């Protein structure tokens, strides 16, 4: 059974604990918790399978694998999936902001997307560029959510709300967020092959105009799709335990990583203030140097010039130190902080998938099974009774077969969801290397500039050994 689901953003809000079940947009009643598709006791006997719908023979020895063989086969399958995704690969797309004014009052921002490298298995080739609006990105994400509700769909930055024009800080953050979104999508081994994704990156006209005349499919990825028997054979039920125990750790990780991001940003601002402080220190020191000529006339001492020269060297040192701090600040903004932000977006995107799963990964197999048994009992009781209408018997039989077909379809869908969830969780495992890359960048950045700062201080210390003092 497929429900509708409205995916709220919660882009950077680590305090947003609203469960999708409480969303005003979620207007459908939810199935009972005990109807989750991954219950082992939902396996039905062969009487509920319809020939041609589910090609399965549970009694066949050929389909049975030992646990060791299952694990080995699953590892091969999962390794192939992991190798298809590299979350730390260079960006394939460049996004820049373009102003476009409409009339005297209203204006909107356009974004130019340039393809930097060919995207395999698509028409998106290097050098092509298109112009898109924020609303186009929103349309793309909504389409991806409809077609791939059990995939990790990256979050979008929030839309501007209010009558006042958005600030430059907001617009810069939104541009960076859109760039992260589109590059995360084209890295995904499944989403990047989506035909509408290729359209988004290559159709030269406005998406809003293209949508008015184009016919495109938004049915989910399971439409007319049957799960492969190979996956059933290699599947180990305990594999879902890790997924089912994920929410608590995931939610805590989002909070902790957001705090780390906040501390990094506070450190960056502290370095910015220190750079300004050094320049202020230098300016006051220069003014003081001027006053020393009156305080210590050369009539009484010939060391004043020596001291003033070294005070000037301290001023030069402070200028260099301030330059280094400004460069470090710029590298933190352009290289380090984006890595922290990208990872928290990744975590929150997985969190949204988990929330969609809790709502959509349900079925009505239990109720259908009871109805099938009840109708079978009715048909059995009707046999041999001359007063029973043939129309009534045929009606119950039709309902019985319809329910059996629904059961078969829902079992097939539950297997497809199970397979997709495992694929996404396996893909997500690659994002642990984003942690490695982030802290390698963090360490290298600090080592680089602390080393340069140390060199400057050591050089100054050596120079000041020649500063005039009492013999």
Automatic annotation (TrEMBL):
Q: Where is the composition biased (Acidic residues)?
A: 1-11
- Residue stretches making up the PX domain: 89-207
Protein transport in keyword set: yes
Membrane topology, as annotated, equals: Peripheral membrane protein
Identify one Pfam family in the record: PX
Q: Name one GO cellular component term.
A: endosome
Q: Where in the cell is it found?
A: Cytoplasm; Membrane
Q: Where is this region: Disordered?
A: 1-27
Q: Which GO terms describe its biological process?
A: protein targeting to vacuole; retrograde transport, endosome to Golgi
Q: Which family does it belong to?
A: Belongs to the sorting nexin family.
Name of the protein in its database record: Sorting nexin MVP1
State the organism named in the record.
Answer: Tetrapisispora phaffii (strain ATCC 24235 / CBS 4417 / NBRC 1672 / NRRL Y-8282 / UCD 70-5)
């Amino acid at each position: 059974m497929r429900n509708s689901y409205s995916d709220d953003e919660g882009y950077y809000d680590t305090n947003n604990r609203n469960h999708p079940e409480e969303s005003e947009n979620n207007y459908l009643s939810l199935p009972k918790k005990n109807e989750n598709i991954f219950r082992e006791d939902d396996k039905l006997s062969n009487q509920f399978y319809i020939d041609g719908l589910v090609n399965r023979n549970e009694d066949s020895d050929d389909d049975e694998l030992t646990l060791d063989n299952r694990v080995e086969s699953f590892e091969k399958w999962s390794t192939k999936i992991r190798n298809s995704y590299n979350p730390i690969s260079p960006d394939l797309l460049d996004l820049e902001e373009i102003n476009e004014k409409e009339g005297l009052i209203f204006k909107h921002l356009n974004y130019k997307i340039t393809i930097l490298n060919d995207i395999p298995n698509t028409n998106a080739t290097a050098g092509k560029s298109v112009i898109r609006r924020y609303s186009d990105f929103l349309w793309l994400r909504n389409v991806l959510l409809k077609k791939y509700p059990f995939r990790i769909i990256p979050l979008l930055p929030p839309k501007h709300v209010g009558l006042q024009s958005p600030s430059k800080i907001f617009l810069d953050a939104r541009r960076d967020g859109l760039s992260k979104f589109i590059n995360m999508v084209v890295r995904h081994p499944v989403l990047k092959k989506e035909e509408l994704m290729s359209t988004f990156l290559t159709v030269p006209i406005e998406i809003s105009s293209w949508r008015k005349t184009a016919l495109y499919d938004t049915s989910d990825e399971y439409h007319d799709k049957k799960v492969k028997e190979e996956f059933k054979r290699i599947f180990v039920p305990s594999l879902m335990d890790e997924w089912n125990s994920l929410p608590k750790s995931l939610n805590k990780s989002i909070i902790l990583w957001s705090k780390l991001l906040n501390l990094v940003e506070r450190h960056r601002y502290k370095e910015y203030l220190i750079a300004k402080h050094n320049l202020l220190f230098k300016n006051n020191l220069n003014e003081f140097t001027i006053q020393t000529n009156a305080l210590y006339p050369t009539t009484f001492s010939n060391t004043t010039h020596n001291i003033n020269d070294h005070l000037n060297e301290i001023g030069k040192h402070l200028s260099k130190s301030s330059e280094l701090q400004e460069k470090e600040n710029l590298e933190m903004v352009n290289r380090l902080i984006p890595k922290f932000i990208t990872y928290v977006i990744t975590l929150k995107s997985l969190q949204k998938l988990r929330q969609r799963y809790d709502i959509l990964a349900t079925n009505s197999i239990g109720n259908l099974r009871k109805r099938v048994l009840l109708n079978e009992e009715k048909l059995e009781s009707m046999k041999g009774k001359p007063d029973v209408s043939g129309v009534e018997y045929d009606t119950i039989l039709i309902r019985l077969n319809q329910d059996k077909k629904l059961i078969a379809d829902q079992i097939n869908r539950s297997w497809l969801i199970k397979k997709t969830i495992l694929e996404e969780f396996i893909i997500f495992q690659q994002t642990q290397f984003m942690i490695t890359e982030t802290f390698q960048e963090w360490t290298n950045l600090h080592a680089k500039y602390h080393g340069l700062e140390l060199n400057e201080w050591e050089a100054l210390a050596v120079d000041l050994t020649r500063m005039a003092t009492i013999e």
